[in-house]
Structure formats: structure tokens, C-alpha cells
Write a structure and sequence with these properties.
The structure is a homotetramer. By secondary structure, chain A is mainly alpha-helical. Helix content of chain A is 66%, strand content 0%. Chain A has 2 domains: 55 residues, Arc Repressor Mutant, subunit A (Orthogonal Bundle), CATH 1.10.10; 123 residues, Tetracycline Repressor, domain 2. The structure holds a DNA duplex.
Chain lengths: 203, 203, 203, 203
DNA sequence: CATGAATGAGGCTTCATTCAT
DNA sequence: AATGAATGAAGCCTCATTCAT
């Protein structure tokens, strides 16, 4: 129940940057697992072994800490978009099924953020980060009609797989591997991203 | 629906049941929009126009109210599974894109529940309801190899579309209609549910 | 050190209005003696024998409680202006030297408010109440040149006597009586309020 | 002013004394504007550009810093009493109406101290300083009966004018000049200080 | 049984102060 | 001796919950 990722020993390190970074890391874990409202700053501080008031000294407020943590998360997530475009689906699949146990302390940033989506401000933040960073990256790969819609349908699938794995923890997805999913994944990607020969048969 | 029992005092009994039902309805809306932690029982009571203490009188605690509300939600969601199997994809699509404005007060129960998924107990509840009610229903339609996995991949897509629409509020999905999505939806359903002629080409 | 005016026994009276009024009374005393910043709401609640959260239930915030308390105070203070104009100086003197021991729990509202004048918002409030209620009332009595200035010089004197008595607690003023001060008071009032025959001799 | 002592390390000693003096000056300003409780030591330190812990190193505690600052203030205020007695009223008037904008950083010490008068200890300090330094100085000028009372009535007026100007910020007084007030001031001084020919007519 | 007044634990945040370096 | 990281005690306020009437 306490100290999920880091140890709870007191640290008198007196190293500002190290403590700040440790708080940020602990915040990512807590916010990701328990949501914004469900996390209290004392538990974050306890994970690091530090007094809660340091959070306010270094970040100003719980909200600012959350923003910094999720911005950093989103940037990390956006890195997957770099690289050869034709291999993007494979990279995305790899990312979403990354070999971390579902009960791991680190979840995908956007899924983590969902847990905080009760708050209107956070929902706006989520919208911007997902749309501007993520969907926009996928959108560039889509050719053919309905490109916007298909880019979002595909993004939604990735989102859904992530949610099913780490939040719902549905049985088969929680334990699967990229290679097991690949055949289906590529065929669906072909349809939604609009591959060469797989354009809609328009029944 | 709420089966008034036999003995006298008809009106008092009526009021009690009506208030109870109204609280439950308000709870579904609030929990769905703001999550478990983000909702407070006073606002639920205010929505109904009664005092918050009635919540404890009728349901015992906030947690029990949540459980009752989400169980009822899950049952309502499961209803979509009833009916001719071959039309299920169409019914699911209709359900997930149902004509409610994104700021509507009623969201899909499972998506609503995501907002509360910071709590371990609630996550278990979510797992059971999604897997036992929903994925199990879809699973029955899947033929061919990897049936479990494909059922979950398809369920994940539905989940993801719902999340993208009502939480992320991604631009194209938020405003789309079932008929616009249908062509893509059916082709993907063909792949994942393993329809008649579209079985995997087995590379 | 604790419970300055009211008793500290718990009260389970369950009388909303009575509790509210008791809190307001205790707030007036505390704010008057210790200033806005120097008062904490727990001590106010303790004076009444009630939980501190009731303050927020009934008044919304410490600041709103302060505003309500000081507005009520100011209205009470303004009452002295009613009555025959030519006897106003006497009534003012009576008010400012009212027979309450300097260590009494009730001080003159404006002097009490001075203790909170570190806060910009409160300073504005004080300005408005003193100028609009008090100085404006005195201003009507002043005839002759420099009427505004003289009204304020006279008001300032009253203010200063109050401060000297109850804050500084200077020795002679703390113990004096209206009749002892009256001769000097009337002569100064004659000069500042601009009596008939006492126009400046312009030496 | 701060008497550098004899031994070596000239520059280090200098810096220390300079910093100490700067902290004291900043403290006078802050305490004067925002009161004791309303001032925090970090803002004092920030004004000087040093770390807050120096305050404790140099002064021991916030309270001791306050005491030192206000003692110094009081001595400065007492300086006005030096000089030819017959010109004292003019000097006092000049002091109280000194050309500083109401939002100036420097206020009259006693008025500044009023803002901290919620604290019993500080109130005692205020009493002693005002009575021993100030009223005592004025008292020496008063002749005739009721000398103590009249000295205090006059002091109270000065106090009140200061309060009205810089705390209440009443309109006419805030902008006036010594020459505008002088006619009234001198006549009142004549009455209260009991000048040459203006002794009370003893009704 | 219903009402709403009252409670107390806990959350965010500030601030004087200490302590390791 | 100086620096600034860290602390812990409050302070305001919210919220689930209880209890007198």
C-alpha cells in the first residue's frame, strides 16, 4: 500500500536536483496508478523519503507537479514517432505491448493520464497531448479518403489495447506478445492506415 | 421496476424508492464524469435535492453506492449483447457512437469506470465486469484460431473508440456517425471476429 | 490564552442560527484582538465549543467570516451618527470612551480593524467603511473653508484617541472619563468642526 | 553607524555587518507594511537577496528581529523630540505629513507597529515605546492643569492623523501638506499643549 | 424514520526554523 | 562561517460520516 516504486528510507542527500528528479519519478508512478485526485502529495514524498513540503518548494503545487510529470511523460511517448514511417505500426505495437508486467509501476503515459480525466483541466491537457503529439504523427501515414477519421480509429485501437492490458487487465491481452498480435495488427493497420492494395472494397 | 412490497403506507414507501432510484441515477452520472475519488456525496445528493445523509441511510457508504451504481451500469451495458449474433457489430457500433454530445451526462459505463480505476478494488470490479459480461459475449462470435486474443483485440478497439470520443475527445471521432465509420468497422470486425470469408490469409 | 470571551464547553445545541451567531460573535472578538492574520479559525470555533469545520459550512471561508463580522461591526458603529447633529461630538466622545475596560473583549470596530490592516483587501474595506460611514457623517456638520480637511482631522483625532486607549493603552487616556475630556474636546471640536465664533484668529 | 570592531578580516566583517543592516532595514519595511504576523522571513531575506537562514544566524528568530527592528525605529522616531521646544509642533506636523506617497515603503514606526498589535508582547513593546519615548517628550511641553491627559490627547491626534493618512488613506489627509494643515494644527496645539495665552477658559 | 447539525480525519500549502555540507 | 536543503508544526479547507432531534 505504501512506497510502490522507490524505497521509503529517509534520504538526507541534500542534492537538490536528485531530490527533485526523485520526486518527479515518484509522482509519475503515483499519478499513473492512482490518478490525480487519488494521489496525495504526502505519499509521493514518502516514496522518496522526504518531507511533503519539499514538493511545494520544488514544484509550487500538486497541480504543477502533475503537469510537469505528464508533460515529461508525453514527450517520452512521442519519441516513438521518430524513425522510418513504414515501420511505425511495428514500433507502436512494440511500445504498447512493451515487456512490463501489467502491475508494473510504469504505465503508458496516456493511459496513466486517463485515470485523472475526471478533472476538466486535465482532460484538456490530455486532449492536446494525444491529438497534437500522437494522432498527428499517425495522421501523416494515412493516405486515401477519410484520412482523419481513419487515423483516429487506428489511434483509438492502440489506446484501447493499452487500456485493456493495463487497466482492465483482460486475460489474453495482458500476457500476449508482439509477435502473437502482429498478424492481426498488420491487417487492421492496412485497412485503417490505407495500405496500397487494401483500399475499401466499398460493398 | 423496484417492486413495492406488500404492507401499507403506500406513499411513504413510494417516496423512499423514488429517492433511492434518483440517487442511484445521479451517482451514475457523477461517478461517470468525475470518477470515484473526484465525486463527493454531497453533490450527488444536491443533484437530487435531498440531504447527503440519505445516501448513508440508503446505501451505507459512498463505496457501496458506487458498487451498486456500477453493477447496474454493467447490466445495462450487457444488454447490447442480446439479439441476433450476426448483427452484433452493428449494434456495438451504434452503442459506442450513440448520439450523445460529448458533454452529455451519460457516458458508456465502462469508460465511466475507467475514471475510477485508480482504486485497486474498483479495478478488480472493472476487470470482472468487462471480462465476464462483455468480452465473454463477444468471444462467442469469434471463430478460428486465437479466438480469445481476437475477441479481446476487438473489444479493445471498442473501448478505445469510446475513450477517444468521450475522454480524449479527439476531433474526428467526437463528431462522427455510425454510417461514416461502418465501412472500416465491418472490415476490421471481419478480420478480428473471423467472419465467413475473411479468415486470416495465414502468411 | 484560550477562550477569551465565550466559554469553551462543547455545545450540541443543534441550533443553526444560534451556532452561527455565536461563531460570528467569537469572530468579532478574536479578529478585533488579534487581527485577521493572527486569528485562526480553530480558536474561534473553540470559543464557541464547536468543530472548526462549521465555520466553513456557515461562512464559506475565513475571509468571508471576517467580512461579515466587520460589516456588522461597522453598521453598529455607524449608529452613533443618528440623532441630533449638534450633540454628535458628545455622542462620539461617549462612544470612544465607552465604559469598557481597555482589556475588554469588545473594542471599537475600526480600531479592531486596524489590526488587520496589513492585508491590502482589508485595508480597502477599512477605507470604505471609515470614509463612507464615518467621515461622511461628520463631514455634514462642518461649515466654513477646508471642510473636507477639517472633517478628516477631527475624525483622525477620534481614531487616535481610540488607538491610544485600546491599543497603545497610554496611561491617562486608558482611565479617563468623558467628563474629564469634555472641556478640551469641545474646544477642539469648535475649531475643527468650525463653530460660529471660533473661526481662526489668524495670528 | 555599526562600529566595525578591531580585529582582522576587514572585508568579511564588513559584508556581515552590511548584510545584517540590510536585513534590518528590509525588516522595518515589511513589518511596517504587513505587520508581524503578516510578514514572513523569506520575503525579508529576498528583499536583501540572501537566504532566509541568515536571519536566524544573525538575529536568532523572527521575533528577535522584530524587536531589534522596532527598537531602532522607535529611536529614530524619538529624534524629532530633540530641538527647540517651541518649534516641536511644527516638527511633529512635518514628520507626520512627510512627503512620502501612501504606498511608500517607509511608514511612521508607531503606525507600522500598530499592524502588529495583535500580539500581546508586541502591544507591551508598543506601549513602552510610545509612552516612554514619545508621550514623555510631549509631556514636557505641556503646562497647566490636566497636563498628562492633554499630552496624551495631543499625541493621540498625531497618531490618528498618521493612521488616517497611511492606513485608512482617507482622501483629504492623504494628499494634504503641512502648510494646509498648519492653521488648524497650531490652534489645537495651543489648546492641548496649553500655550501662552490660550489656556482653557474654564467654563 | 427523516432531517440537518455537527464531527474529525485528512488534504494542500505555508512558514519558521534546523542541520548537513 | 555560510549556504541552502530539509523539516515539522500549523493553517485553511473538504469530505465522508455520525448523531441528536
Amino acid at each position: 500500500m505504501t512506497a510502490p516504486s522507490s524505497n521509503g528510507q529517509p534520504r538526507h542527500k541534500r542534492d537538490r536536483e536528485a531530490t527533485r528528479a526523485a520526486l518527479l519519478a515518484a509522482a509519475r508512478v503515483r499519478f499513473g496508478r492512482e490518478g490525480y485526485t487519488g494521489t496525495n502529495v504526502r505519499s509521493i514524498a514518502q516514496d522518496v523519503g522526504v518531507d511533503a513540503s519539499l514538493v511545494f518548494r520544488y514544484f509550487g503545487s500538486k497541480r504543477k507537479l502533475f503537469e510537469e510529470a505528464s508533460t515529461e511523460d508525453a514527450q517520452a511517448a512521442g519519441a516513438v514517432l521518430a524513425g522510418p514511417a513504414e515501420q511505425l505500426p511495428a514500433r507502436l505495437l512494440e511500445m504498447i505491448l512493451r515487456e512490463e508486467r501489467p502491475d508494473s509501476s510504469v504505465e503508458h503515459p496516456f493511459i496513466a493520464m486517463l485515470r485523472s480525466a475526471g478533472d476538466e483541466t486535465i482532460r484538456d491537457q490530455l486532449h492536446d497531448q494525444v491529438c497534437d503529439t500522437y494522432i498527428a504523427g499517425i495522421r501523416k501515414l494515412v493516405h486515401g479518403p477519410d484520412a482523419d477519421l481513419r487515423a483516429e480509429l487506428f489511434s483509438a485501437w492502440l489506446l484501447g489495447i493499452g487500456v485493456a492490458r493495463t487497466v482492465v487487465r483482460s486475460d489474453a491481452l495482458a500476457d500476449t506478445t508482439p509477435s502473437a498480435v502482429a498478424p492481426y495488427f498488420e491487417r487492421v493497420a492496412g485497412i485503417l492506415l490505407g495500405g496500397d492494395d487494401t483500399e475499401p472494397a466499398s460493398n
